[in-house]
Amino acid sequence: MTIQHAELISKWIDRLEITDELKNSYEFKLILRGSRDGFTPEKFHEICDNKSPTITIIKVKDSDEILGGYNPTIWKSRTYTMTYTRGSEYDKKKNFRLSLLLVITAEF
Questions:
Q1: Domain around 59
Q2: Tally of structural domains, the chain
């Protein structure tokens, strides 16, 4: 993830206009890396449960596509229903596409 990616994600979270101006108001910390920690749901919840808010970013193997999502609520290893909305942005200047899967509500 580059500083430009972090900048774009920060603006989406804050619902700001996408511009070239740098205005990252967040500090991002890597808490799980699949290639380092494993790709199982159990490992994900072992590391990510009780963390909030979080951003999940996934690089699709053998492509330039990056998928991700923002979760403003705390991760928990229990059964619940979530409602999602899909969004996508494409930056023609940088030939960069970032697709988002945003969590809107969680019902327990």
A1: 3-107
A2: 1
How far apart are the C-alpha atoms of 47 and 86, rounded to whole Å?
Answer: 25
The CA distances from residue 8 to 2, 26, 75, 80, 103, in Å, are: 10, 11, 23, 29, 18
Torsion angle, alpha carbons of 56, 41, 31, 96, to 10: -30
Helix/strand number for the chain, H first, E second: 3, 4
Q: How far is CA 80 from CA 13, 28, 99, 106, 107, in A?
A: 23, 26, 24, 7, 6
The model's pLDDT over 88-107, given as tens digits with 9 standing for 90+, comes to: 444 445 544 444 444 444 44
Cis peptide before 72 (omega within 30 of 0): no
Instruction: Output 19 or 89, whichever has higher pLDDT.
Output: 19
Radius of gyration of the chain (CA): 15
Q: Say which residues have a Cβ less than 8 Å from residue 81's Cβ, sequence separation at least 6.
A: 106, 107
Query: What's at 63, amino acid-wise?
Result: S
